[in-house]
Amino acid sequence: MSPSDSFHLETSLQAFERSRWNALAGDQPFVRHEFLSALHETGCAAPDTGWTPYFLALRRGGALAGAVPLYLKTHSRGEYVFDYAWADAYARHGMRYYPKLLSAVPFTPVTGARLLAGSHDDRLALARGLIELAQQLKLSSLHLLFPRDEDLAALREAGYLVREGVQFHWRNAGYAGMDDFLAALNHDKRKKIKQDRKKVAQAGIRYRWLRGQDIDAAALDFFYDCYCRTYYEHGNPPYLNSGFFQRLHEQMPDTIVLIVAMQGDTPVAAALNLQGGGALYGRYWGSTSFVPGLHFETCYMQSIEYCIANKLSRLEGGAQGEHKIARGLLPTPTWSAHWIADPRFSEAIEDFLSRETAAMQDYLGELEMHAPFKPA
User: Fold this and answer.
1) pLDDT for 212 beyond 80
2) In the chain, alpha helices (H)
3) What is the C-alpha separation between 121 and 112, in angstroms, rounded?
4) φ, ψ dihedrals at 3, nearest 5°
5) Residues 6+ away with beta carbon under 8 Å from 228
6) From CA 27, how far away is CA 9, in angstroms rounded?
7) Which site in 36, 150, 191, 240 is 20 to 30 Å from 26, CA atoms measured?
8) What is the pLDDT of residue 321?
């Protein structure tokens, strides 16, 4: 850090000029000023829900040179990197795990910028500054979830423990059309996909792709009804309220791609994806009736077809799901970084992570054996 550099802890995104924040955040939608503000100001990620927002700012001569979106968390829900066993271990030893400090996009398991800066040196300064902050606040731990490669390099250098995970992503190999993609699959997978798509079509399902201002209030309301149904069917209330999606549509309309399944003139399912940085991110889905194959067609095959038609480089299908491999989404490593204050727990967790990483490498190797594509 230069003599003109200083750290500042802010409690609101309004302390940052939107254009400068977004210049550091890049073109992926999830850490942009508008997206995070929508989460906070609609009450989805707020102190009342266990997400108290903070922002570590690196200023150089008064100008913003780097930043980290942070949350003081009183639970581990909505993170998709599971540390419940760590919290239980703390409790068994009569120690407090919560609150903890977290850098992540709430309810969004998507890899992206966490150390918002333009150089490795500034990212390294932010990584070290976060440890100092956690120490000053006397917190048990600090976690950065789904960091991009540039951030991960700085976090490793700063001494964080690194954890490996897996998601399933589809890559566009320059396909001329959907038939070109299907032709790249082996016979069995291609045949199964064609059969599944035919069943959906025979049920009278057709699709509308809506983006930005083409999405009207009725379509957005229908999607939100579907989204809520999915959560309630699994016994949980939804994380996000209708105000969040309305705010997103008002302020970031071109990032939203809504895929609506129609049966005749009646909508029966919807998947809301976000687009940015040359990629499509599968996020939320739901339906009002059951049609065999409707979920896979709406969430995956239509999204892949959209990516091909719009020359997007990849589809990130969200957390979990070995079943996605058969649709052409391949296993892709993801990462998280962790700093643990207590050296005894840090040593134990480091040992656990070394064993977990070895098991994850074996698991990835097994998954790759089931790739659906023809041999190169």
Assistant:
1) yes
2) 18-25, 33-41, 84-92, 120-136, 149-157, 178-183, 187-202, 217-233, 242-251, 294-296, 302-309, 343-368
3) 18
4) -60, -25
5) 238, 286
6) 24
7) 240
8) 81
d(CA 160, CA 337): 6
CA-based torsion, 234, 240, 246, 251: positive or negative: negative
Distance CA 79, CA 104 (A): 8
pLDDT tens, residue by residue, 157-207: 999 999 999 999 999 999 999 999 999 999 999 999 999 999 999 999 999
pTM for this predicted structure: 0.95
Strands 100-103 and 141-145: parallel
Handedness of CA 244, 246, 247, 253 (dihedral sign): positive
Give the residue from 106, 152, 108 showing the smallest Cα distance to 127: 152
Give the Cα-Cα-Cα angle 151, 280, 368 (nearest 5 degrees).
Answer: 75
Query: What values do phi and psi take at 63, rounded to 5?
Result: -90, 145
Paired strand residues for 9: 56
Please name the amino acid found at residue 374.
K
